[in-house]
Structure formats: C-alpha cells, structure tokens
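G., the chain you wanted modeled:
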Amino acid sequence: MIVTTTESVPKKEVAKILGLVFGSCVKTKHVGKDIRAGLRTLVGGEVKGYTAMMEEAKDTATQRMMDRAKSLGADAVICARYTTAMTMKGAAEIIAFGTAVKLE
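Predicted structure as tokens:
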C-alpha cells in the first residue's frame, strides 16, 4: 500500500477515486508518565514517554487508514494528512486521513 502526501504517485495514473479514508487512535497518559512529565516541565527538554506514545498512536491511526483503503480495493492513499485533538484531559487523538485510489 502506497501512502503519500502528494496528489499523485510518480509514474502511476489514478484510475479511480474510491473515497475518503481515515483511521484514528486515542491514547491516554499513564499516571507515572504524567508525574515525570510534570517534573520535566521544571527543567525543560523532551518528554520521551509522550513522544513514544504519540508515535505509537500515529502508527496505529495510519494502519487503520490503510486497512480501510484496502477494504475498498485501493492501491494507494494520496493526499494523506494527520491531525490531532485533545479528546479529554489526559487523552490525545491522532487522525490519519486521505483519498483512497485505484492506480493503473
């Protein structure tokens, strides 16, 4: 499955647009990580636990988007984008979305 942020795939033609596909993942903070993150705000620097959590959420959202595209018979997802939202205190959502297409 090809996933690209561009409107086309080099050396390929879009034969058919199959529709919008998305995948999302909501992750919550672990209390222990939250306490350590709070302490990190005092000294500055990267909160590696949160970075890893968001990376995992991005990967899950992307896989879910690709699974939906495959279920439509797509060869690729073009114009892929990501967005985030805070769904509740201590929880973040990542949404991956794009256009599922069949290539020639």
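The mean pLDDT is 87.

Shout if anything looks off.
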